[in-house]
Amino acid sequence: MLTYLTSGESHGPRLTAIIDGLPSGLPLDDDRINYQLARRQKGYGRGGRMQIEDDRAVIISGVRRGLTLGGPVTIDIENKDWHNWSETMSVLPSTGQIPDAVTEPRPGHADLAGGIKYNHCDLRNVFERASARETAARVALGAIARQLLEIFTIEFASHVIRIGDAVVEPGYNLSDFKKLQAITENSPVRCLDARVSKLMTEAIDIAEKDGDTLGGIAEIIVRGLPVGLGGFSQASQRLDSRLAAAMVSIPSVKGVEFGLGFKAARRRGSEAHDEIFYDGRTNTPRKGFYRRTNYAGGIEGGITNGEDIIIRVASKPISTLKKPLSTVDIETKQPVRAAVERADICVVPALAVIAENVAALVLAGVFLDKFGGDSLTEIKTGYEAFLRSAY
Hints:
By secondary structure, the protein is α+β, with helices and mostly antiparallel strands. Helix content is 31%, strand content 20%. Helix 5 packs across helix 9 and helix 8 (239-248) packs antiparallel against helix 9.
């Protein structure tokens, strides 16, 4: 079973992550981990924090000579901004008034609910951990999971289809994966449509001028997964439920859909399901069972069906506003304006990258559930045997 933990505060000295359940003999390249961390930091609308941090993951256990040993792998990511917060975030007992205490909860953030839950009078104790800064650790772990999956020719891509009112209309072509990856990596908002990309950046500029923030929708595509990952015997085995839970665990995500998603509710069954075809010829790209449509988004009955997994995640606008909303001070109980922290205007392009890597963690887990062994050699043997036997 693949498991992981992350630890660390937004302005603490570092983020730490541990992943357990990886096979031995898996080649790990820290440059590929750092590439994913760099992708997460990019995107039009990011705030000043991204100008300070240059996230670099350091592997501190579980790997020797570039290969996993079979035990837990530990990742460390230094917070470069720590030196500005060392007094505020010190682990030592306080000898006086705590600096930078926050008592004005932000609507939409974990501030008030978390303060009540944990009985904190300084809301910084809540949002330092609730912060999306934690996703850097999960992206690093997802980058490890990707290195396992990519051995089996499983690929990931993402793009942004909406920011505010700027939206890419349906009908975009996802067939050329390399082209999709190239265009989105070169777009400031990870958008396939240059015209809409411009509208998105303009919308972000307007929101920033107004002291506001913007949400949107990102789409994640995973290609090359074999049929049969996941399960239907128990609710916890269903792959779509596991992916949905993982997506909603990303800060700011409020909605998830697969394939047609909510559009399926407006169609008849004859228009909502993917007809099945078969090609037994060995020299064709679609050998075996296949679909000509992908309304299901690659998952039927909680199991991969061999088509691309298509996930869309909807992000609310982040809750830290330069022109803050009304709130109530938790100490005085008087109406005030919400606390203002340094923050982004729009995180949707970064969300796309985060969601790719969070999905990789889930998919690596179900891949190991089916083909797992103690070593990469065992996994390859099981995987190849399954492909030979599958009808």
